[in-house]
Design goal:
The protein has about 425 residues and is of the alpha/beta class. The protein is built from nine helices and 18 strands.
Length: about 425
C-alpha cells in the first residue's frame, strides 16, 4: 500500500547511571572509589533505503524507541551502551517537528544517514570525583534522561520530470510506454491513486526519472480532489510535461484545461508555476478535423508558444511523436542544473538536550544529626559562580535549592526547622 505521510513518536535511550562503589580488597585497608561510568543511551537514526518508495512501514507502528544505557559497575566497569534504532525511509523523505511544522532533516541527495535524536549521555561513576579534599565521594552522576519527540514524515518524490494534467489525459499510458513503470491504466477518472515513478532510458542520452502525478482538478490547491494530496511530489522536479487531451475526447477545451492547471500550480507554489514546461498534446490519433475547423494542435501552438511553451503532438496509444518529446525533454534537462533542492533545517533536536545533571548527595553529619551535609560537583559549580553577599545572588541560591530538588531531598532526609545545612564552606540554618 502506498503511503506518503506518517506521524510517529521517536524516543532516544536513557543514559546509564554512574555507579558508587569502593575497592574492597585483601590487605587494602581503605580502598578508593571504583564506581564505573554508565553506558550511553541509543540514538534514533534515519537512513535512506533506495529499495523503498513509500512510508508504509510507519502506517501501523507509531512509536520507536532506542535502547537504554546500562548502569556502571564495580571495579571501574563501564556500562554497556544502549542499541541505536535505525529507521529506513525512501529517498525524498522530509522530517518535520510535529507541533511546529519546522524541518528537522531532508533525507535526500547526499544526506543518506542522519542521527535525529541522540541518546542520553551515560553518567560518571564516583571514581571520577575523587579529589584531595574529597577522597571518598559517595555520589555518582545520573545518566541523561531519554528524550521523546513527535515528528511528521512527508515523502516528496525525487524525479527529474513531473507529468501533470487533468484526469484521463493519458499520463499513466505515456509513462508505461516510455519507462519501466507499470501504472494501472483504464478509461475512467482517477485511475491513478498514487504517484508512479519510472526511469526513462533514451538511446544516446543519459535518460531521466519521471513521475506520473494523479490528475489535478480545478480547486486542487485549496484541497479539492486527489491532486492536492500529491502536488508536493513535483516540488523537486526540474521541469514539467503538461499533458492535455488535444482531441477533446471528453468534450473538454484543452486550452482552458492548461490555464486551469497552471493556475492551480501557481496557487500552490510560485516555484512550481515557474518550472520549465512543455505541452504534450496527446491523443492526436483521435483528432478529427471537420471542414472549416482549425486543427486543435495549431490552436494550442498559437496560444502557448508565444508564451514560451513548446507544444508537441503525441499519441500515447500509437507512439506517434513520443521519441521527439523525450529527446526534447532530455535536451532541456541538460540545460537545467541537476542539484536537488534540499529543505533547510529549521528545528534542531539537540537544543532539547537538558542542562548538566551533575550529581550531589544529601546526608547527615556522622557526629551531629542536626547538621545536614550537601555536597557534590553540582554544589561546587553553583557556589563557584554565585555571589551570596548580594540580594540577587542569594535569591538565585534559594531558587537553585528549590528548582534542583535539593530542598525536597533535605525534607525527605528528615531536616527540621533550626537544623543546619552545610555546603562546603557555607553554613545556614534551615527554616521552611
Amino acid at each position: 500500500m502506498f503511503a506518503d505521510r506518517a506521524r510517529i513518536t521517536i524516543v532516544s535511550g536513557k543514559g546509564g547511571d554512574g555507579h558508587v562503589s569502593f575497592r574492597r580488597e585483601k590487605y587494602v585497608a581503605a580502598g578508593g572509589p571504583d564506581g564505573g561510568d554508565g553506558g550511553d543511551g541509543g540514538s534514533v537514526i534515519f537512513e535512506i533505503d533506495n529499495g523503498l518508495n513509500t512510508l508504509a512501514a510507519f502506517r501501523y507502528k507509531h512509536k520507536f524507541k532506542a535502547g537504554d544505557g546500562q548502569e556502571g559497575g564495580k571495579k571501574r566497569c563501564h556500562g554497556k551502551n544502549g542499541e541505536d534504532i535505525v529507521l529506513k525511509v525512501p529517498s525524498g523523505t522530509v522530517i518535520y517537528e510535529a507541533n511546529s511544522g519546522k524541518v528537522i532533516a531532508d533525507m535526500s541527495g547526499d544526506n543518506t544517514r542522519q542521527v535525529i535524536l541522540k541518546g542520553g549521555r551515560g553518567g560518571k561513576g564516583n571514581m571520577n570525583y575523587a579529589t584531595a579534599t574529597m577522597q571518598v565521594p559517595k555520589y555518582a552522576q545520573p545518566g541523561q534522561p531519554s528524550r521523546e519527540l513527535d515528528i511528521k514524515l512527508d515523502l516528496k518524490l525525487i524525479a527529474d520530470v513531473g507529468f501533470i494534467g487533468f484526469p484521463s489525459v493519458g499520463k499513466s499510458t505515456l509513462l508505461s510506454r516510455i519507462s519501466n513503470a507499470q501504472p494501472k491504466v483504464a478509461a475512467y477518472h482517477f485511475t491513478t491513486l498514487v504517484p508512479n515513478l519510472g526511469v526513462v532510458d533514451i538511446d544516446g542520452a543519459a535518460g531521466f526519472v519521471a513521475a506520473d502525478i494523479p490528475g489535478l482538478i480545478e480547486g486542487a490547491a485549496e484541497g479539492a480532489g486527489l491532486g492536492y494530496e500529491f502536488l508536493r511530489h513535483i516540488e523537486r522536479c526540474r521541469m514539467l510535461v503538461h499533458l492535455v487531451d488535444a482531441a477533446s475526447t471528453e468534450a473538454r477545451d484543452p486550452i482552458e484545461d492548461i490555464y486551469k492547471i497552471n493556475d492551480e500550480l501557481k496557487k500552490y507554489s510560485e516555484k512550481l508555476a515557474s518550472l520549465p514546461q512543455v505541452i504534450a498534446a496527446n491523443k492526436v490519433d483521435a483528432i478529427y478535423v471537420e471542414e472549416g475547423q482549425e486543427d486543435p494542435i495549431e490552436l494550442l501552438k498559437k496560444e502557448f508558444e508565444p508564451q514560451g511553451y513548446k507544444v508537441m503532438p503525441i499519441s500515447g496509444v500509437t507512439g506517434q511523436g513520443i521519441k521527439e518529446l523525450l529527446y526534447y525533454v532530455q535536451e532541456r534537462l541538460n540545460e537545467i542544473p541537476k542539484d536537488t533542492e534540499m529543505f533547510v533545517q529549521e528545528f534542531d533536536p539537540d537544543e532539547m538536550i537538558p542542562e548538566d545533571n551533575l550529581p550531589y548527595t544529601v546526608s547527615k553529619d556522622e557526629d551531629d544529626p542536626t547538621i545536614y551535609v550537601v555536597e557534590g560537583p553540582k554544589i561546587e559549580k553553583m557556589l563557584g559562580y554565585t555571589n551570596l553577599d548580594s540580594e540577587k545572588g542569594f535569591q538565585f541560591f534559594q531558587n537553585f535549592l528549590k528548582n534542583t530538588g535539593i530542598l525536597d531531598d533535605l525534607e525527605k532526609a528528615g531536616i527540621q526547622d533550626g537544623d543546619t545545612v552545610r555546603m562546603y564552606g557555607l553554613h545556614f540554618e534551615y527554616y521552611k
